[in-house]
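Consider this record:
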Amino acid sequence: MDIRKLNTLRAIAASIVLITHFSDVTGWLDGALGGRAGQYGVMLFFLLSGFLMSHLYFDKKANKENIKRYVISRTARVVPLYVLVVACSYSMYYFGHTGLYEITEVQSLIAHLLFIYGESVLWTIAPEIQFYVIFIGLWKIASWRSGYIYVIVTVVLIVLFFSNFPRIHGDFDGIPYNFFHIVRSLPYFLVGVLIGMHYKSANVPPYLRKNIFIAPLLLIPLMYPHFSPITSDAKMRMWLSYEVLLVMAAVFISVIYLVPDDNRLLANRVGDFLGRISYSLYLLHMPIIQFISTFDMPIVLKLILFLSSSVCVAYLSFRWIEKPTARLIRSVFDDKQRMQKLRVNCQ
């Protein structure tokens, strides 16, 4: 079942990150759209990740074949472009050039490839991969007793709260690791899993399916540090506040469950396009900002050039890297599956 609204939601999440980083780097609007506000875009990504996994897989058996397909699908979607970006970043520094990201030592390279550390925006990929592993366990439990998922999520949220979100980071023989990122991001992924569990079976009354329920999306900019009326530490320490989790989950539920599927603001070709290239947009926009920020031109022109360049680069990346590598990985797996079935039949 294709949920077209999710494409635009991905595009919104990526746009929040892009605009925030542009504001921080260039000082656009005196940094009013910056100040860590990009974290809200990342929260949306993690909510989407948990939602899609439970929505797509919980009604399937957690057997060996389905888990293999899941692993191949998730790997093909995320890993190839990430590995290419990491390898290029290190290679460029090794040969004396400015890299895409600051991966200047072998230890840092290893940490990135092991998904235990990340520079700049790359930090989000490690938790995402770790969530993929965690989800296999949740999937098996859901196949056995789905009600235990609620217990697990509740216990994890309570433990994280009373343990003050432990800062697990350091290095091992010079190889850095930072598991604090997964600790602080895990509640968003788990809440996304809970929301996705019920999407197929939810019976939302027609009188609640209204376009007006797109309005809660406006709560996200209202939480930006420069605009927010919030006076608690949730204003700047958003990952560590369940107040923010509550608001972001409410926004997500409103869009997913209450906004009609044919809402023109969320179901349109622009949203479809930007949603498809959102991963490349996210991974590749920072070097583009750094490059364009050195130009001597009005900041509005920098913004236009940044956005147009980022979209073009992301499309090329999606068209020539993401799609072909994902298709290749899946086809190799499918070929192996067919060969195994042929051997079994021949026996």
